[in-house]
Amino acid sequence: MRRLLAAVVLIALLGLALVVSNGLQPQAGSPAQAPSGTVAPSRTPAPASSRAPSAAGQTTGIPNPSGLATIRESQLPAEGRRILTLIRQGGPFPYERDGVTFGNLERILPRKSGGYYREYTVPTPGESDRGARRIVAGKSGEKYYTPDHYESFKFIAEGK
């Protein structure tokens, strides 16, 4: 019960912070933007107008519906970029569990009907098992990266 209450309070505070800061976030390319090598906190709201470009660099029209921070495809580890390519091609995938339904039990990603999300392993060099890194893909084409086995997620801006 305490966890539920804490989650509700956190969501309310994040919503309030979003409302208060609406219009105050720097535009892409402005001097106030973080340097390209830095990683934004995983729950920083992204501008509502963000779009994910396709592999060819053209806008796919896929917005960031999550309010999560965005990570550019080029900022993913090399293994993550290879898995994105395999997802686009429909496989084959290196692990038997790749492509299984992701239940979103953590409720970090936008809530969707069962079966909406699929998860794919991003291999971790030196790990003897699947490791903690994953890409989760939604039926509408949006993709998210988690480096820490679903503790946090970032929306992937493809083609950047």
General description of the model:
This protein is of the alpha+beta class and 160 residues long. The protein has one domain: Nuclear Transport Factor 2, Chain: A (Roll), CATH 3.10.450. It contains two helices and eight strands, in the order αβββαβββββ. A six-stranded mixed sheet has the order 3-8-7-6-5-4, covered by helices on one side. The chain has a two-stranded antiparallel sheet with strand order 1-2. β6 and β7 form a beta hairpin. It is globular and about 40 Å long. 21% of the residues are buried. About 29% of the residues have low confidence.
**By helix and strand content, what is the structural category?**
alpha+beta
User: What is the assigned CATH homologous superfamily?
Assistant: Microbial ribonucleases
Shape assignment: globular
Mean of pLDDT: 74
Q: What is the C-level CATH assignment?
A: Alpha Beta
Number of DSSP-assigned strands: 8
Q: In angstroms, what separates the terminal alpha carbons?
A: 42 Å
Q: What is the radius of gyration?
A: 16 Å
Within the largest sheet, what's the order of strands? Answer: 3-8-7-6-5-4
Q: Which characteristics define this entry?
A:
8 strands; alpha+beta; 160 residues; Nuclear Transport Factor 2, Chain: A
Outline the fold blueprint.
Blueprint: H1 2-21, E1 51-53, E2 59-63, E3 70-72, H2 78-89, E4 100-102, E5 117-121, E6 134-138, E7 143-146, E8 154-157
Task: Describe, in short, the structure shown.
By secondary structure, the protein is α+β, with helices and mostly antiparallel strands. It has helices spanning 2-21, 78-89, and strands spanning 51-53, 59-63, 70-72, 100-102, 117-121, 134-138, 143-146, 154-157. The strands form two sheets. The protein has a six-stranded mixed beta sheet, with helices on one face. A two-stranded antiparallel sheet has the order 1-2.
